[in-house]
Design brief:
- This protein is α/β, with parallel strands linked by helices.
- The chain has a domain of 180 residues: L-arginine/glycine Amidinotransferase, Chain A.
- Helix content is 21%, strand content 27%.
- The protein contains 6 helices and 15 strands.
- Strands 2-1-15 form a 3-stranded mixed β-sheet, covered by helices on one side.
């Protein structure tokens, strides 16, 4: 289970891009900027999996959901909490159905369901960052007011202090603007989130060079994975004493995704 994104990453679910990520009937409807290169995307995803395994993280693969090119971005489909997984409800209409696909898979792994987001609420996993005892939640185009209310209730029942921020336009998910990099440290794009949101946390600020400049995978023990083209984060984290692993993820940037979008952490600690 996962209590905090800042703890050691031990087990994740990933969805390798085999066919569906490249079968895009309408780019805009799927929020994909450009059709990815199949060979390069597959290699980049394999490199990510190898990096995770080298950090002693168990990697569990799920097959793509038919006619769902975004199913490679598993982070958005569910939230793993200390009591089990919360089945979310996608904000992008073309992604609806991915929640049930992932819920069925997580149940097959033996994870109990700890909650369910119900219509008309929408919540995507990229808008929630657990940092026990705090839960950061983004109110965005993908996570609506009803969704914020429902996920707040579910997390408060587990003892979390919920902090909510409405994201500035141009930011898809909270997880693009910020990430937890250890238990009490976040990386955040400057001038996007008020400082009081991070009370009791240390903040590493980076320039607003991209809507995903704050998107970083925390491996634990001061080690992180950062997209190779995210040089502002690489430099800032290096100066702060983190060991940074750079990976080329250009073919997933085309799908509007960052590193954390490609993994669903199911165990940390």
């Amino acid at each position: 289970m996962v209590r905090s994104e800042g703890e050691k990453l031990r087990r994740v679910v990933v969805c390798p891009p085999r066919k569906e990520y490249f079968k895009i009937d309408h780019l805009e409807a799927h929020n994909i900027q450009e059709t990815p290169d199949p060979c390069l995307a597959r290699k980049q995803h394999q490199d990510l999996v190898k990096a995770l395994k080298r950090s002693r993280c168990q990697v569990i693969e799920i097959s793509e959901l038919k006619n769902h090119p975004n199913s490679v971005f598993v982070r958005d489909t569910a939230l793993i909490t200390p009591r089990g997984f919360i089945q979310l409800r996608m904000g992008l209409p073309t992604r609806r159905g991915e929640e049930r696909w992932m819920a069925k898979f997580l149940k097959s792994l033996g994870l109990p369901r700890a909650g369910l987001i119900r219509a008309p609420a929408t919540v995507e996993g990229g808008d929630i960052i657990l940092a026990w005892p705090v839960a950061f939640i983004g109110h965005s185009k993908r996570t609506n007011k009803e969704g914020v209310d429902q996920i707040t209730h579910l997390l408060a029942r587990q003892g979390y202090e919920v902090r909510i921020i409405t994201l500035p336009s141009g930011h898809l998910h909270l997880g693009g603007a910020m990430s937890l990099v250890d238990k009490r440290t976040v990386i955040c794009i400057e001038n996007t989130i008020p400082p009081e949101f991070f009370e009791d946390f240390k903040v590493i600020y980076v320039p607003d060079s991209s809507p995903t400049s704050g998107n970083v995978i925390c491996l634990g023990r001061k080690k992180v994975i950062v997209a190779k083209d995210n040089q502002v984060a690489i430099r800032a984290l290096g100066r702060a004493g983190f060991s940074v692993l750079e990976l080329d993820l250009s073919e997933f940037v085309k799908g509007s995704g960052g590193p954390t979008c490609l993994i669903l952490p199911v165990e940390r600690g």
